[in-house]
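not sure who needs this but someone in the group chat was asking about ABC transporter ATP-binding protein from Streptomyces triticagri so here u go. i didnt clean anything up, its just raw.
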Amino acid sequence: MVPGASRTGHRRRRPRVHPVRTHHRIRTQPQAGGDPLSLLDIRNLEVTYASGAAAVRGVDLSLEAGQKLGIAGESGCGKSTLALALLRLLPAGTRITGEVLLDGEDVLTMKWGRLRAVRWAGASIVFQGAMHSLNAVHRIGDQIAEPMLIHRTATPTAAKKRVGELLEQVGLPAARAQAYPHELSGGQRQRVMIAMALACDPSLIVADEPTTALDVMIQAQILRLIEQLVSDKGLGLVMISHDLAVLADTCDRLAVMYAGRVVEEGPASQVYEDAEHPYGKALSGAFPRIGDPASRRAPRGLAGDPPDPSALPGGCTFHPRCPVALDICATEDQELRSASPGRRAACVHVGASAAVVEQTR
């Protein structure tokens, strides 16, 4: 050692974790007409990746506190991109326009510090694939506690106690906080992800394929757990899935996406049982009905694949696969229009356009 040198100069300093300010829920203020703002209000949201792929195109949706909104569609229709856009979790270079109002505050225009404060505390996300979302070398209790410590919603001692409560709330023993992700089953890891999403008491939870790759018994348990938490805590839930039947059973309202746009939206049971849009009908028909031998023996499918987001067809993007497409569908895009009270669909066969089509035949 060089004489006079300080010993402290050779010590490695541990990186500091800079906590962010705790996000306090913003109470929805009445609009000019007296109606309260929605918990989540998505207005003309568009997402274009750096490659030029238009993954989300002009989506308008709203969600009230205590309500469950399902988003369905095939792989590649823009569901997960929409979910990630809500909290600005998309890769650098992605262009996002429109508005995402959370409690009346636009997430897309928030400064970085404010956005960090909103994530987990104002809105949280349950990512698809729990094994890939959890850190394999950290105990699950530490991972659940981390958002609470970063947002300073609890002291380390209180956070440890809260972790045990959250695990028991999602049906796991508090002692499992000492386990590593690989020591848990798929259903248990999914419960851990839900516990983490609840850690900072958010007002909105986005669940992206929360039951993917789980067996039907575990699926049912996870779905009932999500329903109970939404009911008990008055949360808003956006749930994404390929499974129209699961969404119809779990959610209040259902939006069907195709090629980055919402093509049908309405009460979940009505959209599932009697879809207005041909694509919604095809998705619903792909699931056999219990007690209906005809649908079980001959479930209906849909030929082809969704279009490439970077090379969308002209007119209605569904017309190349649509069994009831007309000549006009290849040249004119169809906007969402009223199909019946509380329901919208983007199809020439729906609403006032249907009457015009009949007259021209």
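also The chain is about 30% helix and 20% strand. if thats useful
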